[in-house]
């Protein structure tokens, strides 16, 4: 199931069926990703960030070649932005800003889960899967909304609804 794209998206989607919660995630997950990457870069060991971005990219490409390549390009763009920011601002300002964005974005997501979904977020049931798949989920949600891979979307949504029923 690790390399079953439909199942991976369905597992995550099962926690994100309410449109307002999905909207929160569409905004907050890219912010969480970028702020986490920024804080990793701030450790003074950028190889940690580069290694994780490479692992994420590889996994995303294995799941879906085209969308994985798009996600990988997005990760590279974030890294370039982080490097540029580090030439313009003091590291403490960058780190504190990233930490603030990170905390507020997580808080918004938890609010979305408890207020709209009426349940805990996926990260409380399975730490790794949501942290790895959340950015990919956002990209797929945007692509699905544009009509991309309609059959995959329909199959994933049916699986998600069934997974949600099974967990209740």
UniProtKB/TrEMBL annotation:
The membrane-spanning stretches of this chain are 21-42, 62-81, 93-111, 131-148
The opening ranks of the lineage are: Eukaryota, Fungi, Dikarya, Ascomycota, Saccharomycotina
Q: What Pfam families does UniProt report for this protein, alphabetically?
A: Mpo1-like
Does Nucleus appear among the keywords?
no
Question: Entry's InterPro entries?
Answer: Mpo1-like
List UniProt keywords, sorted A-Z. Answer: Membrane, Transmembrane, Transmembrane helix
Q: What name has this protein been given in UniProt?
A: Uncharacterized protein
Give the UniProt entry's GO cellular component terms.
endoplasmic reticulum; membrane
GO terms, biological process:
sphingoid catabolic process
Source organism per UniProt: Pichia kudriavzevii (Yeast)
């Amino acid at each position: 199931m690790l390399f079953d794209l439909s199942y991976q998206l369905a597992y995550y989607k099962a926690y994100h069926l309410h449109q307002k919660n999905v909207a929160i995630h569409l905004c907050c997950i890219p912010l969480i990703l970028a702020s986490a990457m920024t804080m990793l870069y701030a450790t003074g060991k950028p190889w940690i960030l580069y290694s994780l971005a490479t692992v994420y990219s590889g996994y995303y490409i294995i799941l879906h070649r085209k969308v994985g390549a798009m996600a990988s390009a997005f990760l590279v763009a974030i890294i370039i932005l982080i490097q540029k920011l580090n030439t313009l601002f003091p590291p403490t300002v960058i780190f504190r800003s990233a930490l603030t964005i990170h905390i507020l974005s997580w808080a918004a997501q938890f609010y979305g889960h408890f207020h709209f979904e009426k349940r805990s977020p996926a990260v409380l049931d399975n730490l790794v899967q949501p942290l790895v798949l959340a950015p990919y989920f956002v990209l797929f949600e945007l692509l699905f909304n544009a009509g991309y891979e309609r059959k995959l979307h329909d199959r994933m949504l049916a699986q998600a609804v069934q997974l949600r029923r099974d967990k209740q």
